[in-house]
Design a protein that fits this description.
This protein has a single domain (about 15-505), classed as Cytochrome p450 (Orthogonal Bundle), CATH 1.10.630.10. It is built from 20 helices and twelve strands. It has helices spanning about 1-30, 40-45, 50-55, 60-70, 90-95, 125-135, 140-145, 145-165, 190-205, 210-215, 220-240, 245-250, 255-275, 285-290, 300-330, 335-345, 355-360, 360-375, 410, 460-475, and strands spanning about 75-80, 80-85, 105, 185-190, 385, 390-395, 395-400, 405, 475-480, 490, 495, 500-505. Strands 1-2-8-5-3 form a five-stranded mixed beta sheet, sandwiched between helices. Strands 4-12-9 form a three-stranded antiparallel beta sheet. Keywords: Heme, Iron, Metal-binding, Monooxygenase, Oxidoreductase, Virulence. This is Putative benzoate 4-monooxygenase cytochrome p450 protein. It comes from Botryotinia fuckeliana (strain BcDW1) (Noble rot fungus).
Length: about 500
């Protein structure tokens, strides 16, 4: 009887206690929190829940852009987080300086893969990993040295695309896949870009491609990596509500646990095969660069595996996204496509489409830069947390413990930074005298690869890959879209989730 009465009272008091706690926390967050003076939606200021829901739905970049459009250049997107879209915020947050020492990585990005890579390493480990892993392989000079790999896989891409649209095969013998070619010439270019970038990433990382281009399909390990990465995005969202992330991993559905174990098994098998080769240092790949570095003894096997996974996934997905979005925007802008086509086809020989020449093409580079503005590789802010002392960011004193970041998608689509921000207009990146209507654009806010010690290590290789593949596809084919993508409807988690993109390719006839 006593226990029954106790439970009855508890059943009444517990909801009241929970409600009272919510009211107290909400009141504090709205009116008394150190960043309560910053504007933003009230629900987002009260709780992290709207942020997590938006992240899980893949719409966080859109929602934060709309918040900035309504409330201004610095907005509150969570009880303890501010988003910036001003150019000066880049240096204040990511490069620090004397005034802003002690920023730390946000806990949402902690160890998302199960072991640390350059993406999720703690601050003390990141500097060590970046120095050991990036000194040789990611140097600016490496892009030219690795051009041969990029060109060779682009050769295969062009060959396979011509086979798909019923062109005569290159060489004297017909491909065994000719029977698969379609008379219409309609193909899903999203898949072919992904095949190319994954094969290139595999070659750069492990001296072994995945056979995607030759087999016209994804390697099973790649499908496993992509799925595992999406699961990691879910864990990242839950990490904002510790210990939900721990509980999810511990008590996850059997399917998720099987997926994780199979992923780790395949990963260790693949890297074990690479490391067991008798010539681990003779190959010109990422692994060899580590072995050849006399200071790389501090890299563990798990760290090497984690960074190879990052190289393959981020290096392929971001490049494929840039190629796909550029082609999509070009198809939606016939005049832009025509202008770029004329610039690229000024070369009579395909062999002239090398990096030395492509780096000097102003309109090609303007198209790529505008692509990164409209569709940045990482749409959401890589957040940092202000350390024990307050920090000055864009002329504002930010209290300790506040998460801060530049939300790229919002910054690059803001009318305060760019004229006609929703339109794809490469001319804005030409010389000012050639694009006077964009003279007021805030070009300094454009940092698609971030800045500082955590900027994209592989950006030089990535830009080389985009230039070569895009230029050679346009040189070889007339392109028209069967149906274009509404990029504002594409979901973005840690990376963009891309829909199929069907185009009609017509091979350009040339006198031999």
């Amino acid at each position: 009887m006593i226990l029954s009465n106790y439970l009855s009272v508890l059943a009444i008091l517990l909801p009241i206690l929970v409600l009272a706690t919510c009211l107290v926390v909400s009141t504090y967050n709205l009116y008394f929190h150190p960043i309560s003076s910053y504007p933003g939606p009230r629900l987002w200021a009260i709780s992290r829940f709207p942020y997590v829901v938006s992240l899980y739905r893949g719409r966080l970049h859109i929602d934060i852009k709309e918040i900035h459009n309504r409330y201004g250049p610095v907005v509150r997107i969570a009880p303890d987080e501010l988003s910036f879209i001003e150019a000066s915020a880049w240096s204040g947050i990511y490069t620090g300086g004397v005034a802003n020492q002690g920023f730390i990585k946000h806990k949402a990005y902690s160890d998302a893969q199960g072991f640390e890579s350059l993406f999720d390493a703690s601050d003390e480990n990141h500097a060590r990993l970046r120095k050991l892993l990036g000194k040789r392989f990611f140097a600016a000079a490496s892009a030219n040295k690795q051009e041969e790999v990029i060109q060779s896989y682009t050769d295969i891409l062009i060959k396979r695309l011509k086979e798909q649209v019923c062109e005569a095969p290159i060489g004297n013998q017909a491909s065994k896949d000719d029977k698969k070619a379609t008379e219409s010439g309609v193909i899903n270019l999203q898949e072919w870009y992904n095949y190319t970038t994954f094969d290139i990433a595999g070659k750069f990382t492990l001296s072994e491609d995945f056979g995607c281009l030759e087999g016209s399909t994804y390697h099973p390990w790649i499908l496993m990596v992509l799925t595992h990465f999406k699961m990691s995005a879910l864990v990242m969202a839950l990490r904002l509500y510790t210990p939900l992330d721990v509980l999810f991993v511990k008590f996850a559905p059997a399917r998720f646990l099987r997926l994780k174990h199979e992923f780790l098994r395949l990963t260790r098998e693949k890297f074990g095969r690479r490391l067991s080769k008798t010539y681990p240092t003779s190959q010109d790949d990422f692994v060899a660069a580590i072995f050849n570095d006399p200071k790389s003894g501090g890299v563990t096997r798990d760290e090497l595996e984690a960074n190879c996974i990052l190289m393959i996934l981020a290096g392929s997905e971001t490049m494929a996204t840039s190629l796909l979005s550029a082609t999509n925007f070009l198809c939606k802008s016939p005049q832009v496509l025509q202008k770029l086509t004329e610039e690229i086809r000024q070369y009579d020989k395909e062999g002239d489409l090398n990096l030395t020449n492509l780096n000097q093409l102003p309109y090609l580079n303007a198209v790529i830069r505008e692509t990164h503005r409209v569709c940045p590789p990482l749409a959401n802010a890589p957040a940092r947390v202000v350390g024990p002392g307050s920090a000055m960011i864009s002329g504002r004193s930010i209290p300790p413990g506040t998460a801060v970041g530049v939300t790229q998608y919002a910054a690059f689509h803001s009318p305060t930074n760019f004229a006609l921000p929703t339109q794809f207009i490469p001319e804005r990146w030409l010389k000012i005298e050639e694009s006077e209507r964009f003279a007021g654009d805030n070009r300094d806010v454009m940092r698609p690869f971030s800045v500082g010690g955590r900027d994209c290590a592989g950006q030089n290789i990535g830009m080389a890959e985009i230039r070569v593949v895009l230029a050679r596809v346009i040189w070889n084919f007339d392109i028209s879209a069967v149906s274009t993508l509404a990029w504002e409807d594409q979901k973005c988690f840690m990376l963009w989730q891309k829909d199929p993109f069907f185009v009609n390719l017509k091979s350009v006839a040339r006198d031999v």
